[in-house]
Design a protein that fits this description.
The protein contains eleven helices and 16 strands. It has about 400 residues and is α+β, with helices and mostly antiparallel strands.
Amino acid sequence: MKLREMLESCYRRLERCFGGGGRNGGDRLLWHMDLKPHASGDYSIAVVQANSSLEDQSQVFTSPSATYVGVYDGHGGPEASRFITNHLFPFLHKFTSEQGGLSAEVIRKAFDATEEEFLHLVKRSWLARPQIASVGSCCLVGAISNDVLYVANLGDSRVVLGRRVSDGRTSYSTPVVAERLSTDHNVGVEEVRKEVEALHPDDSHIVVYTRGVWRIKGIIQVSRSIGDIYLKKPEFNRDPLFQQFGLPVPLRRAVMSAEPSILIRKLRPQDLFLIFASDGLWEQLSDEAAVELVLKNPRVGIAKRLVRAAIQEAARKRELRYDDIKRIEKGVRRHFHDDITVIVIYLDHQQGTPNVRSRDHCMVDCTSAPVDIFSFNADEVDNTPHTFP
């Protein structure tokens, strides 16, 4: 084989492993992995970066017996979402092994342990980096094991199920509906706002409408997260060291929590696919629009298609085109849309039947999106094999 053919062959293999690489229609801030197998079907991932440092992180763990999905939408910096990527799944595996299987209690313990470990990190870093107390992340996790779906959530990332309407004679002509499976912990939702107010009857300013949205203490929209220690541990907020970096917020007690909402659902033949995404997607597309797009398009690259649809909608709102948006640098681009992460999980083989193709690959696999899309794509361009004459 000629040198050029060898190099191109290697590059194609890398593309298949790590995603679409630089072939993203000229969008240097977009990364995608078009399609991979898991035990119950296929999955697709795409991420677009808008912030100066990517604050969204995501991962999919697959094995013959289980599939785990994680979407972590950070705020105040990338540290919390990156921390969750490295710690939550190991805790899930540890507690699942100790308890003899997955359960709501196992998931709660994994979330609690991740929160506790992040608190330890904040304490260790406090003197050198007091601002780390203001970093946090939403945390959405899905787990499929023995044909049972577990969904756990903190914050306003969301999972939506595409499901055929059951009429006793399900067929390809049967309508497909969007069913939201997670709870948005965002005080923009009246029910969540009332929940927070009921927990703080002695604080008439616990939720404030400012800068066009409802916020807890005028600061943050989500009511549950990993991190945000300064809003959970008043002693950090009162420390003069922290007040050099942020406005003091008078707190009597914690105003946020790390207690996840958990849903457990037996998967049914009518359940077609799951869309896990950070709120960057849902700010632009309705649940129904996202499900319809997945239903009507090929599987390969479906997550990328959803991300692009969201960006096109963000562009339309500003009377721009997607081509205009993708030329905007990271950081500045945040003024037009948020970081967006999408993972689509197809559900093909219920009743405990593993995906045959998954047995042709590694028995255990974990795919994580790059820590920073801009840096990843820049490195890939630098390392792309040249075509020799």
